[in-house]
Specification:
Layout: E1 4-7, H1 12-23, E2 28-32, E3 54-55, H2 61-71, E4 75-78, H3 85-90, H4 92-112, E5 117-123, H5 146-165, E6 169-174, E7 176-178, H6 191-200, E8 206-208, E9 214-215, E10 217-219, H7 220-229, E11 236-241, E12 247-248, H8 249-260, E13 268-270, H9 291-299, H10 307-313, H11 321-338
Parallel strand pairs: 1-2, 1-4, 2-3, 4-5, 5-6, 6-11, 7-10, 8-13
Antiparallel strand pairs: 9-12
Helix pairs in contact: 1-7, 2-4, 4-5, 6-8, 6-11, 8-11
Bound molecules: nicotinamide-adenine-dinucleotide (NAD).
Nicotinamide-adenine-dinucleotide (NAD) is lined by residues 7-8, 10-14, 31-37, 57-59, 79-83, 98, 102, 121, 123, 174, 176-177, 183, 190.
């Protein structure tokens, strides 16, 4: 195998993928601008990638081209993105610049330097306005949030590169991902990272609506398995990465509490608007954001069909939720104890 490029390699998913490829004896080049990622993610028992990572912004065409020219990558995993929904909503120009323009830089350089396949990290958020479940790859989608639209637009560019140039590109639509290295420390961590952090600090997690909203959670190792399985694809493809089952936030809280011995800490369930009230810019006249849209975002149900991934790539998610949460908690507590102290930013 030739060299594999991973962008966004200091983030949760990119770092786990890098670790797996390295363990399998592959040659990897890692790119991140550390806008969200962290060096902590790059330290594993057997490998320390901190010195290896190229601190480049994916929008830096010159810097990126130097890497493509030097390594002639066989494959590219384009994982880098601005992922927190509120950040994308508050700064849509940056979101489009990084997520869409950044993807175009990667696609164009991949074309120019003859990369054999690009694998793009897309999202289940694309289905946010669909009402039929489980969501299938063939559904027509029309998302409303900025984040989902940046991914939707990027998928269109991926398709365009396949249709115009025959360059194989696979778009993986990840459901909610969890597992070791999930970020607990950023301002808006993913829900599991947030609950673990609050329990760890003895706080009551503040959650939204009644906790009965249900999401599809996929464990990181299962996701990485599929990231590797799709390397055989030789055309354009869109693939859901999911368990095809939905779990309520209340169940997630209970499983984490049991794992951490925090059953005595009761979460606080607040109004759905609470989550977004920290972003006053969004409520500014004359065009304040639609409250209905935000409510829909908080309450939305997700469940993605995984039949296509199973049938075409022989893949199957293996991790039982309770075991996956146990692994997630174990790693997060270690990280919060040992490395989180100087990196807590509220
Ligand atoms: N985590 C999930 O539940 C989930 C769900 C669906 C889709 N995804 C997608 O998977 C990918 C990875 O998600 P994650 O959870 O690991 O997020 P993450 O924020 O942990 O990782 C993203 C990485 O991209 C880097 N990055 C951002 N802008 C960059 C730029 N301009 N140049 C170079 N690097 C840049 C960040 O520093 C970070 O390390 C993202 O594309 C995300 O949209 C994630």
């Amino acid at each position: 195998m030739g060299t594999v490029l991973i962008t966004g390699a200091a983030g949760f998913i990119g770092s786990q993928l890098a670790y797996r490829l390295k363990k399998d004896g592959e040659s990897v080049v890692l790119v991140d601008n550390f806008s969200y990622g962290s060096e902590d993610n790059l330290i594993f028992p057997e490998y320390n990638f901190v010195e290896e990572v190229c601190r480049i912004d994916v929008r830096d065409v010159k810097g990126m081209e130097q890497l493509f020219a030097k390594y002639h990558f066989e494959q590219v995993y384009h994982i880098a993105a601005i992922t927190p929904l509120p950040d994308c909503q508050v700064s849509p120009i940056d979101a489009v610049d990084v997520n869409v323009r950044g993807t175009t830089v990667v696609l164009e350089l991949s074309r120019k330097y003859g990369v054999q396949q690009v694998i793009f990290a897309s999202t289940s958020a694309i289905y946010e306005n669909n009402e039929k479940f489980p969501s299938e790859e063939s559904f027509v989608t029309a998302p409303s949030m900025i984040y989902a639209n940046t991914k939707f637009a990027s998928e269109q560019f991926c398709r365009a590169y396949w249709e115009a140039y025959g360059m194989p590109v696979v778009c993986l639509r990840f459901a909610n991902v969890y597992g070791p290295h999930i970020d607990c420390l950023r301002t808006q961590p993913p829900v599991m990272g947030y609950i673990i952090r609050e329990f760890f600090q003895g706080n009551q997690p503040v959650l939204h609506a009644d906790g009965e909203q249900r999401r599809d959670f996929i464990y990181i190792d299962d996701l990485v398995d599929l990231c590797l399985a799709v390397r055989e694809a030789s055309s354009y493809d869109i693939i859901n990465v999911s368990t095809e089952s939905s779990v309520s936030i209340k169940t997630i809280v209970r499983l984490i509490a049991e794992e951490m011995g925090c059953e005595n800490i009761a979460p606080i369930y607040t109004d759905t608007a609470h989550y977004w009230s920290k972003y006053p810019d969004l409520y500014r006249e004359p065009y304040p954001i639609s409250k209905k849209l935000l409510e829909h975002e908080v309450l939305k149900y997700t469940c993605l069909s995984n039949k296509y991934a199973m049938e075409k790539y022989g893949w199957k998610p293996k991790t039982e939720l309770r075991n996956g949460i146990a692994q997630t908690v174990r790693f997060a507590i270690e990280a919060l104890n040992e490395r989180g102290k100087n990196r807590y930013y509220g």
